[in-house]
Amino acid sequence: PDVAGVQLPRPSLGIRIESITPLIARERNLGSIRGCLVVQVEPGSIAEDAELRSGDVIEEINRRTVMGNTALKRELSQIGSGQPIVFQVHRQSLEPVPRIFISLTKP
Predict the structure, then answer these.
(1) How far is CA 42 from CA 22, 39, 45, 47, 91, in A?
(2) In this prediction, what percent of the chain has a pLDDT beyond 70?
(3) What tens digit of pLDDT does each residue of 15-62 get?
(4) CA–CA distance, 51 with 59 (Å, rounded to integer)
(5) Cβ of 86: how many Cβ atoms within 10 Å?
(6) How many Å apart are CA 20 and CA 55, to the nearest integer?
(7) Which of 9, 60, 74, 100 has its CA 20 to 30 A from that of 86?
(8) Does this model's pTM top 0.85?
(9) Regarding predicted confidence, which is higher, 58 or 94?
(10) How far apart, in Å, do the first and last CA atoms of the chain sit?
(11) Are 40 and 53 in contact, with CB atoms under 8 Å apart?
(12) Are 63 and 86 within 8 A, CB to CB?
Protein backbone atom coordinates (compact mmCIF):
# COMPACT_ATOMS: atom_id res chain seq x y z
CA PRO A 1 0.00 0.00 0.00
CA ASP A 2 1.02 3.59 -0.62
CA VAL A 3 0.06 6.27 1.91
CA ALA A 4 1.02 9.90 1.25
CA GLY A 5 3.87 8.80 -1.02
CA VAL A 6 5.29 6.37 1.55
CA GLN A 7 5.44 2.71 0.55
CA LEU A 8 4.13 0.64 3.45
CA PRO A 9 5.00 -3.06 3.74
CA ARG A 10 2.21 -5.48 2.85
CA PRO A 11 1.02 -7.67 5.69
CA SER A 12 2.40 -11.14 5.27
CA LEU A 13 1.13 -14.60 6.13
CA GLY A 14 4.74 -15.61 6.69
CA ILE A 15 5.17 -18.29 4.02
CA ARG A 16 7.43 -18.75 1.03
CA ILE A 17 5.91 -20.86 -1.73
CA GLU A 18 6.75 -22.31 -5.12
CA SER A 19 4.59 -23.87 -7.81
CA ILE A 20 4.28 -27.63 -8.06
CA THR A 21 6.43 -29.02 -10.86
CA PRO A 22 6.04 -32.49 -12.40
CA LEU A 23 9.07 -33.62 -10.35
CA ILE A 24 7.61 -32.37 -7.05
CA ALA A 25 4.24 -33.96 -7.87
CA ARG A 26 5.93 -37.30 -8.61
CA GLU A 27 8.14 -37.20 -5.48
CA ARG A 28 5.14 -36.46 -3.26
CA ASN A 29 2.65 -38.78 -4.99
CA LEU A 30 0.27 -35.88 -5.56
CA GLY A 31 -1.43 -37.28 -8.63
CA SER A 32 -1.70 -33.87 -10.29
CA ILE A 33 0.38 -30.79 -10.95
CA ARG A 34 -1.58 -28.21 -9.01
CA GLY A 35 -1.06 -26.22 -5.87
CA CYS A 36 1.87 -24.57 -4.17
CA LEU A 37 4.58 -26.12 -2.07
CA VAL A 38 5.24 -24.31 1.21
CA VAL A 39 9.03 -24.12 1.28
CA GLN A 40 9.37 -21.93 4.38
CA VAL A 41 7.22 -20.78 7.29
CA GLU A 42 8.52 -17.78 9.21
CA PRO A 43 8.81 -18.28 12.97
CA GLY A 44 6.16 -16.34 14.86
CA SER A 45 4.07 -15.74 11.73
CA ILE A 46 0.34 -16.15 11.31
CA ALA A 47 1.03 -19.21 9.15
CA GLU A 48 3.06 -20.82 11.92
CA ASP A 49 0.32 -20.07 14.45
CA ALA A 50 -2.18 -21.75 12.10
CA GLU A 51 0.18 -24.76 11.90
CA LEU A 52 1.11 -24.54 8.23
CA ARG A 53 4.37 -26.44 7.78
CA SER A 54 7.24 -26.50 5.36
CA GLY A 55 6.46 -29.30 2.91
CA ASP A 56 2.70 -28.72 2.94
CA VAL A 57 1.04 -28.38 -0.45
CA ILE A 58 -1.69 -25.75 -0.62
CA GLU A 59 -4.27 -27.13 -3.06
CA GLU A 60 -7.20 -24.78 -2.45
CA ILE A 61 -7.85 -21.38 -0.95
CA ASN A 62 -11.41 -20.61 0.13
CA ARG A 63 -12.67 -23.55 -1.96
CA ARG A 64 -10.88 -22.36 -5.12
CA THR A 65 -8.32 -24.62 -6.75
CA VAL A 66 -4.78 -23.25 -6.76
CA MET A 67 -2.88 -24.00 -9.96
CA GLY A 68 0.42 -22.36 -8.93
CA ASN A 69 2.02 -19.61 -6.91
CA THR A 70 0.77 -16.83 -9.22
CA ALA A 71 -2.81 -18.03 -8.77
CA LEU A 72 -2.40 -18.25 -4.99
CA LYS A 73 -0.96 -14.74 -4.80
CA ARG A 74 -3.83 -13.43 -6.97
CA GLU A 75 -6.43 -15.08 -4.71
CA LEU A 76 -4.73 -13.71 -1.58
CA SER A 77 -4.66 -10.19 -3.05
CA GLN A 78 -8.46 -10.31 -3.42
CA ILE A 79 -9.02 -11.13 0.25
CA GLY A 80 -9.29 -8.10 2.50
CA SER A 81 -7.40 -7.59 5.72
CA GLY A 82 -9.17 -9.27 8.63
CA GLN A 83 -11.00 -11.70 6.33
CA PRO A 84 -10.88 -15.47 6.87
CA ILE A 85 -8.73 -17.73 4.70
CA VAL A 86 -9.22 -21.48 4.54
CA PHE A 87 -6.51 -23.56 2.89
CA GLN A 88 -6.98 -27.16 1.81
CA VAL A 89 -3.57 -28.66 2.41
CA HIS A 90 -1.99 -31.94 1.38
CA ARG A 91 0.33 -33.07 4.17
CA GLN A 92 2.30 -36.18 3.30
CA SER A 93 2.82 -37.23 6.91
CA LEU A 94 -0.92 -37.74 7.31
CA GLU A 95 -1.22 -40.65 4.83
CA PRO A 96 -3.57 -42.40 4.13
CA VAL A 97 -5.84 -39.33 4.57
CA PRO A 98 -3.42 -36.52 3.79
CA ARG A 99 -5.80 -33.58 3.27
CA ILE A 100 -6.56 -31.14 6.05
CA PHE A 101 -8.08 -27.68 6.31
CA ILE A 102 -6.19 -24.82 7.92
CA SER A 103 -7.96 -21.56 8.80
CA LEU A 104 -6.42 -18.20 9.54
CA THR A 105 -7.24 -14.52 9.26
CA LYS A 106 -5.49 -12.32 6.73
CA PRO A 107 -3.42 -9.65 8.46
Answers:
(1) 26, 10, 6, 8, 18
(2) 89
(3) 999 999 999 888 888 878 889 999 999 999 999 999 999 999 999 999
(4) 16
(5) 13
(6) 11
(7) 9
(8) no
(9) 58
(10) 13
(11) no
(12) yes
- In order, the DSSP letters of 19-82 are EPPHHHHHHTT-SSS-SEEEEEE-TTSHHHHTT--TT-EEEEETTEE--SHHHHHHHHHTSPTT
Q: What is the DSSP letter of 94?
A: G
Length of the chain: 107
Cα–Cα dist 5/105, whole Å: 28
Query: Which residues, 6 or more positions from 49, have their beta carbon under 8 angstroms from its beta carbon?
Result: 104
What Cα–Cα distance (Å) separates residue 40 from each residue in 12, 43, 45?
Answer: 13, 9, 11
For residue 37, which of 90, 81, 74, 73 has the smallest C-alpha distance?
Answer: 90
Q: How far apart are CA 105 and CA 77, in angstroms?
A: 13
Q: How far apart are CA 96 and CA 29, in angstroms?
A: 12
